Amino acid sequence: VRLAWRTPAEVSGLPDPDDVPEPAAVAPSGPAGRAPDAAVWPEGWLLLGLDAEGAPLLARRTGAPASRVGGWTGLRSVFAALDDTELVLAATAVALHTWHARHPRCPRCGAPTRPAQAGWSRVCTAEGSEHYPRTDPAVIMAVVDEADRLLLGHAAAWPQGRFSTLAGFVEPGESLEQAVRREVEEEAGVEVVAVEYVASQPWPFPASLMLGFRARARSAPAVADGEEVTEALWVTREELAARVASGAIGLPGRGSIARRLIEGWFGGRLGQD
Ligand SMILES: [Zn+2]
């Protein structure tokens, strides 16, 4: 799976997005191979970077998909299939566009804002305050007990049989390690120690950075909170492999850090591709 890059002329006929209050009349332009002026930036366009020849790579938010640019698919469904460079570009475009769409007005005074810095900030049109995209840290953790069983949870919002590692947002004033301990305690009633960082993954749905951890449980019984998590269970490697093979348990998609944490504990790939 590759991203399908188009020239500005090829996308000029696409509709403007409905949620931009004052679509700009200007389009990015500039000498060949140079990015357009970044001080005043047209609404709906973003500068993602420069290609190997120095030509700007832009992303534009559009309205309804137009058939002449081909098929469209959601970023989640191709997360595992894109290479690292294109994944970063696509995740950046989705994260920034979502932020623009949700921040048409100044949080200080309520006046409209306009894009600046090549789409990487917005400036208040009334008093000039600058506003930047935010990233919300979330922790996700593979918790194991003394018998090396893995803790899995089923969230209320998921389809039946879907299980994953526990996860949750970091709260104000909290360290990442404290967030791991609090979430596991809240969602499954399990006390954890020895919290250890593994890896991170941008998750722009809409603005998360998933920070993956391993942790060891001090207390064994897992009791779901009944609200966010409706089922919590410990599994051995043999139990998980058997339930995945029989279809009783569905795991998060390949390419997600949740799957990576689970397969890291398991020691290999689980289930069919
Ligand atoms: Zn303002």
Helix-strand layout with pairing:
Layout: H1 8-11, E1 45-50, E2 56-60, H2 75-78, H3 84-102, E3 113-116, E4 121-124, E5 130-131, E6 136-144, E7 150-155, E8 166-169, H4 176-188, E9 192-203, E10 208-217, E11 229-235, H5 237-246, H6 257-266
Parallel strand pairs: 6-10
Antiparallel strand pairs: 1-2, 3-4, 4-5, 6-8, 7-11, 9-10
Residues 106, 108-109, 111, 124, 126-127, 129 line the site of zinc ion.
- Rg, rounded, reads 22 Å
At CATH's second level, what is the architecture of the largest domain?
Answer: Alpha-Beta Complex
Helix fraction?
Answer: 10-25%
| Beta-strand content | 25-35%
Structural class: alpha+beta
Q: Name the ligand types.
A: zinc ion
Major sheet characteristics = 4 strands, mixed
Strand order of the largest sheet: 8-6-10-9
Mean pLDDT: 86
Number-wise, the strands total 11
Secondary-structure element series: HEEHHEEEEEEHEEEHH
Give an overview in words.
- It is a single chain.
- The chain is α+β, with helices and mostly antiparallel strands and 273 residues long.
- It has 2 domains: 8-131, Nucleoside Triphosphate Pyrophosphohydrolase, CATH 3.90.79; 136-266, Alpha-Beta Complex (Nucleoside Triphosphate Pyrophosphohydrolase).
- Helices cover 22% and strands 25% of the residues.
- A 4-stranded mixed sheet has the order 8-6-10-9, sandwiched between helices.
- The protein is globular, with a radius of gyration of 22 Å.
- The two termini are 15 Å apart.
- Mean pLDDT is 86; it is low at 19-38.
- The site of zinc ion (ZN) has 8 residues, from loops.
